[in-house]
Amino acid sequence: MLAIGGDLSSTRLINAYKLGIFPWFNPEEPILWWSPNPRGVITPAEFKLNRSTKKSIKRSNFSFTVNQAFSDVIQNCAKLRVKEGTWISDEMISAYTKLHEEKYAHSIEVWQNDKLVGGLYGIGLGALFCGESMFHLATDASKAAFWQLCELAKKFGIQLIDCQMQNSHLQTLGIYEIERNDFLTISAELQQASISSDVWHKRQLKYEW
Q1: Which among 151, 155, 171 is positioned nearest to 163, based on CA atoms?
Q2: What is the gyration radius of the CA atoms in the chain, in angstroms?
Q3: Residue 52 in 3-state DSSP?
Q4: pTM, 2 dp
């Protein structure tokens, strides 16, 4: 933890992300700002799914979109963590929804029979994507969202996905750890990279293996 207090204005949030810092706090707490060491990251080409998960996703008849239901994605991410304790408070939802309106925050949605069953959201800064949270209402839907994010990243030149902290689940998908100073150096370079704005246009994603 680096700091306590401040606000969740768009300017403060984006300046924080540019420095490898993000907010993470319980609703009853003051705003807490973090920059973990080591840092959990993945390059899109290193994302992996085991054979059984691939088969499960293929059978699920999922379809995928970009930025079609950001509000629903973040609301579901918050709702499904209420029992275990969620940092995605109404204040956080409002702040990141504003970032979405300002074209900083983006979502990947997973649909099944026209129902939203999974997704993720995060912050795009040049060739860096800072992942925030994901959810699933159908088996493997969050993994499918992550897979589609990596496919999108490979297509449009996003070179690194920041996962903040590694855990045993993320490790199975290919997430690894690097030293914070290394992350900050790489992150600063990637933020300056120019990529097509088409990457975050609202649309349906083509299902490819």
Answers
A1: 171
A2: 16
A3: helix
A4: 0.94
3-state secondary structure of 168: helix
Per-residue pLDDT tens listing for the chain (209 residues): 999 999 999 999 999 999 999 999 988 889 999 999 999 999 999 999 999 999 999 999 999 999 999 999 999 999 976 556 577 999 999 999 999 999 999 999 999 999 999 999 999 999 999 999 999 999 999 999 999 999 999 999 999 999 999 888 889 999 999 999 999 999 999 999 999 989 999 999 976 65
Looking only at the bridges linking them, the beta strands covering 160-164 and 128-136 are parallel
Q: Which two tokens stand for residue 65?
A: 């979109």
User: Helices (DSSP H) in 137-177: which residue ranges?
Assistant: 141-156, 168-172
Question: What is the Cα–Cα distance from 73 to 60, expressed in whole angstroms?
Answer: 19
